[in-house]
Amino acid sequence: MPASLIQPEFKVKIDYDKCHKCGRCVQQCGWGVYSFNERPIPDDTKCRACHRCVTYCPAHCITIQKNDLAFRDNPHWTPALRKSVWRQAESGGVMLTGMGNDRPYLNVFDHLVLDACQVTNPSIDPLREPMELRTYLGRKPDSVEVETDGNGGFHLKEGTGVSNNIQLETPIIFSPMSYGSVSLNVHKSLAMAAERCGILMNTGEGGLHADLFPYQDHVIVQVASGRFGVTPEYLNRGAAMEIKIGQGAKPGIGGHLPGEKINREVSETRMIPTGTDAISPAPHHDIYSIEDLRQLIYSLKEATGYKPVGVKIAAVHNVAAIASGIVRAGADYVYLDGFRGGTGAAPQIIRDHIGIPIEIAIAVVDQRLRDEGIRNQASIIAAGSIRSSADMAKAIALGADVVAVGSAALMALGCHLCQGCHTGSCSWGLTTQKAELTRRVDPEWGAERLTNLVHAWSHELQEILGALGVNAVESLRGSRERLRAIGLDEQTCKILGVKPAGL
Amino acid sequence: MTYDPLLERMPTSRLPSFSDREGVFGGERPAYAEESPFKIHGGCGLMGICDESGKLMSGETAIRAMAVQRDRGNGLGGGYAGYGIYPEFPDHFCFHMMYHDLAAKEAAEAVFDQYFVIDLAEPMPTRPVKGISDAPLLWRYFLAPDPHKLEMAEMTAEDYVVHTVMLINSKVDGAYVASSGKNMGAFKGVGFPEEIGHYYILEEYQGHTWVGHNRFPTNTPGWWGGAHPFTLLDWSIVHNGEISSYGINSRYLEAFGYKCTLGTDTEVAAYLFDLMLRRHKLPMELACKALASPLWSEIDRMPEDQQALMRSLRAVYGPGMLNGPFAIVLGFNGGMLALNDRIKLRPLVAARQGSVLMVASEESAMREVLKSPDKVWTPKAGEPVIARVEGMDWPIHGDLHLSASEVSCAVTGVENSCETVEVV
Amino acid sequence: MMQATKTKTNGVIEGYVAREPKITIDGDTAMIEAQNVYYRNVNDAVRQVIADGAKTVKLLDINGQRYIGTGLRAKGVKIEVNGTAGNDMAMFMDGPAVEVFGNAQDGVGNTMNAGTVIVHGDAGDVLGYGMRGGKVFIKGDVGYRVGIHMKAYENHVPIMVCGGKSRDFFGEYMAGGMLVLLGMNSQFEGPLVGGYLGAGMHGGEIFLRGEVEPWQVGKECGIFVADEEDLARLRPVLEEYCAAFDMPIDEVLSVPLTKLVPISHRPYGKLYVYV
After folding, report:
1. Does B2 have pLDDT greater than 60?
2. Distance between CA atoms of C201 and C192, rounded to whole angstroms?
3. How far apart are CA B280 and CA B274, in angstroms?
4. How far is it, in rounded angstroms, from Cα A25 to Cα A13?
5. Band of residue A470 on the pLDDT scale cut at 50, 70, 90
6. Are residues C103 and C185 in the same domain?
């Protein structure tokens, strides 16, 4: 019998007439596709189509093609499903993968369109006129209390207002990605870019490396069930703290960073021995109910002089009620992660079949909090495949305060969405701890690319606001009147609070 | 369950007319209700004038100011509110009523009879004017709450009156309360404002404060109750421009219990004032800074304590910020407030002549009325012009304790505005 | 119960009445009495008397009538406006000289091609929008969005001088011509000019009598002190301005002038990436 029934997904083609025989492809490929015998010889079975070799080939003589084997048609049994059966029959294993859900579920964002002003109110020129994106993340009081200064002026009543909010210059932040799952250079790139853009990065659950201390005012420090690297110092360094309950790519599932990724520096940051698996339990074992969440939120606040605390959850069926409970438990923001959100490693079956789209989650959470009159008590961060400024604008119009980007940030640093994060061999040097790979990301270069991305999306959001005739992002936030649906069913429209186009 | 405010809160026998509503009140109440699922678009012109010494001016002043701004409207709505116009009844609540038919009048009067002492009921004086047609029956009533019933209701007089407005607007088919304040009244309808003013014989009224409006709706035929000003007790509001942030403004208000059912920016502005001034007790100047916020760049240049205040105002009231072009005048017993948007997308000109402060969409309106103003100026974007009549109170309805949904119901007359559950 | 202030009239109180204004002709001067006359009748009369050979047209008791001189194509004709000129005065105007003794409302000189506008008072918002040629001289203050997108083309070079102060967006998107702000005859409190000064400017020049803070100025502008060469170019313009309002030019020039010019003709070249 053959070792595997599964044929390679891709074919690596080299035009040997053009090939310099320089061996750069051999050196660049993190997956070990190439061997060299007078010329590079590819092993198609190892290729993930990450294009590292293609990008770095000086002769441009490499191309990657789909291994488009014909299967007898059966829409029910897709080739991918057949391969899954063979793979599991061969291994007996749970299929593990990286990045986000790639199944072709209906994408709600792609069925929403935005409005623009014509005649009855003017559009606004976003390039020359003020176009404000500044956003405050955190709990806001119902009203502002003032005292007169005795001279006809007013000042804020002591201890009121929004002093505890975090100021963001644009409503984009970077999603949590732990040091361990990604490299330190990725973390540094994110932190430097966050500082330059006036936004936030998020440590994920792997602690805060000392090299990031200079950027700590732009860092959310995460507290997950494994509590890696969580110390009073860690908590106090962050601009805010985040309790991670769940993740869109793997709702209800804990984390598992394999021992191979725990080198000395990761071990120091996570405060666990090198080479040991870093396992995050599925639940927080000090949170078995909502009142326990409140207890943890307030213990974090107590430990830090009442810094903001957010709670990150995966978008699941009952997300509105859960979010309401989180806000009532005292969270300063609710981070909603939709089912297309990325991951360093998740069981494929979980990634692809659990959770709901972020668009729906934003809509129901925002509406529920409004119905309960507590929308001002917490900000909503939306994540889980925000792919462009259009997705961002639509998410904000549905009710999000801020969007968080993870996959797009990694793509800015070279990620080609090859879904091999869990292997630890990322050729782009992102989701790996191998020194020869991680050094491929120069933090200065990375920070510049991330800054460019954030600035470009911000400019595009300003263009959208201008067309909508508003000059501040708070006038788009939750303004579903500016959205219309094309090709969504009536029930979905109702849930989204969006009218169909034409109405 | 819908809310029958009087039935629930008034300690009286049941109104007979409610038990046989089919007979007196009819079934559904769409006769005047402009319950639009759509956003209503439109532009307009406006004016406001106040003699801060309390000296009275003829309503002709307001008509003249609107007449020179005729081309700002399209003849589908004009209206005024005058203050200090009923010195003979300074302490009575004056109800200006619009009736679709006699049955509506009879039903509304049954409510007045039940709960008020009526000191005068009379048809609104009008004269025929070419161009004005399809006018409803217009009546006015000078009322005082029945003292015994007021005491039993354990309400302030203001709450009692707004409950009545709610009851009539939402339950009495074909009846609409145009205004219900003391010593003031709203005069509005479908037509050009000078025609409307003339129709109501406005030149025979004397007031210390007047506001006026010329409407240019783009997609509604116009109904008499839908013309500006909108009122609540003695507040009146007129508005020019279209607010591009309507979607979030209305959702923000809904979280406080208001029901934005008319689809108009004016309704939203009225509730925002009610929320900020009456319920949150913000000073008028600061409410204006929340509605037409300074730019962040401007806030960043302010002294530290003002930065903290403005940052909080914007962060907290951001969803209520009126973004897009607007100019607005709020009239009240005690003065008026005029405000335009944060980057001045709609015109607003102000003038002062002695104790008289005036605002309008065009300078010509002031030149028409004030023959020799001491000063004519354009207020800065988002900087309110506030006139205050000497010796009168600030426009906080201190005696009004109603919930947001009750206020909405009173203002719009849309029945489903009124809910028993009040979310605070 | 109400005291009548005047006897009842049977006609609606009208701001303007659509009727022929009274016209008096004296040589090549025509006098039009415009009090409460609807703008269409006023402007019809202006066009008629010019067609009949009038070189000077005096409009009396103007108050808010729109479109005075709008679209008018005539050389050597002077229109004198007494009162408050209404919106869109001298829009698309091509040749005549309009002088207002009073204030002007919004939209003066909109897309004006040639001619002169002199206002002995203040002017409102959106003054000289898209102005392509001719001169606009305002004695006093001006509102928001003044000189937006003024542009020059071959020998069409628009010139605007405002004697008072200005609100935000002065010279926004300016593409050509000369825009001058003196800050002298003002009732505005505070600085000479608001924010977003010259935002998006990509042509022409702005002169300010006095200084501005960097925050007021659009990022597309360079800030300089006007030099001898600039003053040589400016002097004839200011002399003409001062003559119009009987102001001493020495006082105008007693304060150093700030000059704003665009840094780039393509300020947003780097903002876009082609796909």
Report:
1. no
2. 19
3. 9
4. 12
5. very high
6. no
Q: Determine the average pLDDT of the residues in B328-348.
A: 93
Spell out the domain ranges in chain A. 10-69, 171-500
Q: Which domains does chain B have, with CATH numbers?
A: 5-16+42-417 (3.60.20.10)
C129-159 core/surface letters (b: 16 or more CB in 10 A; e: else): bbbbbbbbbbbbbbbbbbbbbbbbeeeebbb
B140 vs B423: which has the higher pLDDT: B140
> Which has more confidence, C166 or B77?
C166
Q: C1, B88: Cβ pair inside 8 Å?
A: yes
Radius of gyration of chain C (CA): 21
Written as six digits, the tokens of B188 are: 């509005």
Average pLDDT over residues B24-52: 58
CB contact under 8 A, B424 and A372: no
B-facing residues of C in 208-267 (CB < 8 A) are 215
Residue B44 pLDDT exceeds 90: no
Domain that includes residue C51, residue range: 15-120
Contact B286 A136 (CB under 8 A): no
In the A/B pair of chains, how many CB contacts fall below 8 A? Answer: 145
> CATH topology for A171-500?
TIM Barrel (3.20.20)
- The catalytic residues of B are 44
Chain C neighbors (3+ CB pairs < 8 Å): A, B
Q: How far is C264 from B188, CA to CA, in rounded Å?
A: 54
Residue C128 lies in a domain: yes
* Segment (H or E) for C205: strand C203-209
Same domain, C141 and C253: yes
| Residue of B323, B343, B405, B419 to mutate, interface with A, max A Cβ within 10 Å | B323
Identify all chain C residues contacting B68, using CB atoms and an 8 Å cutoff. 15-16, 63-64
pLDDT at B410: 66
- Please tell me the distance from the alpha carbon of residue B238 to that of residue B188, in angstroms, as a whole number: 11
Question: B222 falls in which pLDDT band (50, 70, 90)?
Answer: low
Confidence of residue B419 (pLDDT cuts 50, 70, 90): very low
Torsions phi, psi for B330 (to 5 deg): -110, 120
The model's pLDDT over A293-317, given as tens digits with 9 standing for 90+, comes to: 999 999 999 999 999 999 999 999 9
Residues C106 and C221 in one domain: no
Q: How far is A377 from chain B (nearest CA, A)?
A: 10
In a domain, C171, yes or no: yes
Name the amino acid, one letter, at C202.
H
Q: Are strands A166-168 and A135-137 parallel, antiparallel or unpaired?
A: antiparallel
Q: Which chain B residues are closer than 8 Å to C141 by Cβ?
A: 377-378
- Give A230 to chain B, closest Cα distance, Å: 31
- Which residues touch C7 (CB under 8 Å, ≥6 apart)? none
Predicted confidence at residue B414, as pLDDT, reads 55
pLDDT digits (tens, 9 = 90+) for B189-203: 999 999 999 999 999
The answer, yes or no, to whether residue B218 has pLDDT greater than 50, is: yes
C273 is a domain residue: no
CATH topology of domain A10-69: Alpha-Beta Plaits (3.30.70)
As a whole number, the mean pLDDT across chain B is: 83
Q: Quick: pLDDT tens for C226-247.
A: 999 999 999 999 999 999 999 9
Domain shared by C77 and C135, yes or no: no
